[in-house]
């Protein structure tokens, strides 16, 4: 006698539709997020008020009544959300697709009746025209609309679809969820162009063929975030289990969209003068290479820097609103040109006497002696603008407050266009004249400047402010906005910073120089990256040849091919040393005391048996103060396939950092510096 299994209600799980190559790809929410959505769903049914549920580490909001998932920090098309319990899959499909909520309810009612009455092999016609046959609890098939009367033969093209009830019966990986506590916030700034990897994807990939970098950035943030979360579980497991650490949040900063958007109109102007031949190559060049020239243009450099700073401050403020109990630090990551933007931005940050950053976005190195109405009156009379003094006096403005005004502020108080332009031009000149003396005084009494300039007639060693160089292409003179926080660390990935500093005329970086508000700086690069340049040779003396620090593999050792290469090099050097020692013993006149000393001096030391990483740590050399005296240049280990042909993988090596687990581990070691990380020798 067969035992009848009682009917048990289905456990629902929530999914969202992530478009990939214009195709639907339904992804499950984490177990924690799905449970929160289910709890909110039960509350929504009792009242008319809509429920908004924060998911995915509070990076997305789900509006229950709309069944939509909205991104919080970046622009992205809302994704459809479903409360799922039944799934279907064709013979050629890779994954199961959830039915709509209406069809799930219809199928569940039919399944409940069949289970209760033990009546199987019943036909259920769906509103879409397909027919579902419930053969038994384990076998349920959906047939196309052309096969309502009878199942199709094997020769027919239309194939039936398999049905599954409950998420536990389909092969899908459901994430557990992210820790609620965020220990550290990292802003990641992209480089040139809309593409971020060798497949020309950008940095929030929501799957649609869109050109904006923000629309693709989520994909790479997820890759880096997932790698970071996995490393925390594997390398910081004890601290995580003890709730000592939570997680690190990574947020993308997009400036490409503003530069190439409707506001500047630069793309339309470039398109008008672009030749029609080899259109794809020219389009690629316009989207990528031109960003380098834009950054060296006074007009567009100001746009780029303002966009990066304002976006970072906006995201920081929004993050604090959504995480009101956040007490951790903030770090910055820049890739390619993005690292240069952040380098210039951090170099031009200002600090008050107590070490706090200025909140103003203009240069505040002004002479306090120019803070009276009399000095303002004299300055305006010298430029024929005295007729507008009454307006400025009415607003209680002096020289200092005028320097803090934007053109929009002057327009709002009633200054006409012509005088307004003249006034802004005068303000710009006053700023430069005063900031020059202000920086000079600051350099004499506080911190040294970045470096030294290459004169055409003779080299000089006097420290000057590098932003005023007129050698090479120079750095354009712009007003640098201020960040709303002090970064803990700055990570440059595949960075051309060193090359740009040389082209600007910088001879070497002052060893005593450090960022005004950031005390740690890491220059990370792949050995085959054609865009990356080193920083340490610009700090160390020319006669010191210090190789970059090798980034350990995340599994705790060097890659096999690098160990073999190092072993062969060591064997060959030992063999040459032995031959040299034998030759010297033969050629030299016997002298017991000298021979003994010679042999003992040539005896291999214990250091030969120590790994290169440990030797480098033992032979620690202080490298300036940009990274608090620690090493700055860090090189990734190339993979075995990359070592076969470095030219073949050159472009890919410049785009590898977003998916590099070793890079993510280096970032985590800096963030959790006081917490020991476990080495996994696998």
What is the gist of this entry?
The protein has 682 residues and is an alpha/beta fold. The longest helix is centred in the middle third of the chain and has 29 residues, at 417-445.
Structure description:
- It is a single chain.
- This protein is of the alpha/beta class and 682 residues long.
- Helix content is 35%, strand content 15%.
- The strands form four sheets. The chain has a seven-stranded parallel sheet with strand order 15-13-16-19-21-23-22. A six-stranded antiparallel sheet has the order 2-1-6-5-4-3, with helices on one face.
- A hairpin with an 8-residue loop joins strand 1 and strand 2.
- The longest helix is centred in the middle third of the chain and has 29 residues.
- The two termini are 53 Å apart.
- About 14% of the residues have low confidence.
Topology:
Elements: E1 13-17, E2 26-28, H1 31-44, E3 52-55, E4 60-63, E5 68-71, E6 79-84, E7 86-89, E8 97-98, H2 101-117, E9 122-125, E10 131-136, E11 139-143, E12 161-165, E13 182-189, E14 204-205, H3 217-235, H4 237-241, E15 247-253, H5 256-259, H6 266-273, H7 279-287, H8 290-295, H9 298-322, E16 329-335, H10 337-347, H11 373-381, H12 389-394, H13 399-403, H14 407-412, H15 417-445, E17 451-453, E18 463-464, E19 490-493, H16 497-503, E20 506-509, E21 521-525, E22 549-550, H17 560-587, H18 592-602, H19 612-618, E23 633-635, H20 650-654, H21 661-671
Protein name: DDHD domain containing 2
Family: Belongs to the PA-PLA1 family.
GO molecular function: metal ion binding; phospholipase activity; triacylglycerol lipase activity
């Amino acid at each position: 006698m067969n035992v009848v299994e009682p009917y048990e209600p289905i456990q629902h799980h929530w999914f969202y539709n992530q478009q990939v190559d214009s195709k639907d790809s339904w992804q499950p929410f984490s177990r924690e997020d799905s449970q929160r959505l289910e709890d909110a769903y039960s509350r929504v049914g009792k009242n008319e008020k809509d429920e908004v549920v924060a998911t995915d580490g509070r990076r997305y909001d789900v509006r229950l009544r709309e069944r939509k998932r909205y991104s919080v920090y970046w622009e992205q098309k809302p994704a459809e959300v479903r409360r799922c319990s039944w799934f279907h899959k064709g013979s050629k499909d890779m994954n199961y697709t959830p039915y709509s909520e209406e069809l799930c309810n219809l199928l569940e009612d039919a399944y409940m009746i069949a289970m209760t009455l033990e009546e199987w092999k019943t036909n259920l016609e769906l509103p879409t025209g397909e027919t579902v046959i419930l053969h038994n609890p384990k076998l349920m098939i959906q047939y196309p609309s052309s096969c309502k009367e009878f199942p199709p033969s094997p020769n027919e093209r239309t194939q039936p679809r398999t049905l599954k009830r409950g998420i536990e019966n389909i092969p899908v990986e459901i994430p557990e969820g992210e820790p609620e506590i965020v220990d550290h916030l990292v802003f990641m700034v992209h480089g040139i162009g809309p593409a971020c990897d060798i497949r020309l994807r950008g940095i929030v990939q929501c799957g649609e063929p869109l050109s904006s970098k923000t629309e693709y950035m989520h994909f790479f943030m997820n890759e880096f975030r997932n790698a970071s979360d996995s490393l925390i579980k594997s390398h910081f497991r004890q601290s995580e289990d003890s709730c000592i650490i939570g997680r690190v949040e990574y947020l993308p900063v997009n400036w490409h969209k503003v530069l190439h958007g409707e506001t500047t109109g630069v793309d339309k102007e470039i398109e008008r003068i672009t030749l029609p031949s080899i259109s794809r190559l020219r389009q690629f060049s316009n989207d990528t290479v031109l960003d380098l020239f834009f950054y060296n243009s006074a007009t567009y450099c100001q746009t780029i820097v303002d966009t990066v700073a304002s976006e970072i401050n906006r995201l920081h403020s929004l993050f604090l609103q959504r995480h009101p109990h956040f007490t951790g630090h903030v770090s910055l990551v820049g890739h390619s040109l993005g690292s240069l933007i952040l380098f210039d931005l951090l170099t031009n940050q200002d600090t008050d006497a107590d070490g706090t950053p200025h909140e103003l976005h203009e240069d505040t190195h002004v002479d306090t002696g120019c803070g009276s109405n009399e000095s303002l009156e004299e300055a305006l009379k010298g430029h024929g603008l005295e007729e507008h003094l009454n307006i400025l006096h009415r607003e209680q403005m002096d020289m200092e407050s005028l320097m803090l005004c934007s053109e929009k502020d002057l327009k709002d108080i009633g200054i006409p266009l012509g005088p307004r332009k003249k006034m802004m031009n005068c303000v710009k000149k006053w700023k430069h004249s005063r900031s020059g003396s202000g920086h000079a005084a600051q350099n004499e009494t506080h911190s040294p400047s970045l470096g030294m300039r290459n004169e055409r007639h003779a080299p000089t060693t006097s420290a000057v402010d590098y932003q005023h160089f007129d050698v090479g292409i120079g750095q354009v003179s712009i007003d640098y906005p201020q960040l709303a926080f002090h970064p803990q660390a700055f990570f440059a990935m595949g960075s051309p910073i060193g090359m740009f500093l040389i082209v600007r005329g910088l001879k070497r970086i002052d060893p005593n120089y450090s960022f005004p508000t950031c005390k740690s700086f890491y220059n990370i690069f792949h050995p085959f990256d054609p865009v990356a340049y080193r920083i340490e040779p610009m700090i160390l003396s020319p006669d010191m040849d210090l190789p970059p620090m090798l980034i350990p593999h995340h599994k705790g050792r060097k890659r096999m091919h690098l160990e073999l290469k190092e072993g062969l090099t060591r064997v060959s050097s030992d063999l040459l040393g032995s031959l040299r020692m034998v030759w010297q013993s033969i050629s030299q006149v016997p002298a017991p005391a000298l021979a003994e000393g010679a042999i003992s001096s040539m005896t291999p030391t214990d250091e030969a048996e120590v790994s290169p990483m440990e030797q480098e740590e033992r032979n620690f050399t202080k490298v300036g103060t940009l990274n608090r005296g620690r090493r700055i240049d860090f090189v990734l280990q190339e993979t075995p396939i990359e070592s076969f042909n470095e030219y073949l993988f050159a472009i890919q090596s410049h785009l590898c950092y977003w998916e590099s687990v070793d890079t993510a581990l280096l970032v985590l070691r800096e963030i959790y510096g006081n917490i020991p990380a476990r080495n996994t020798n696998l």
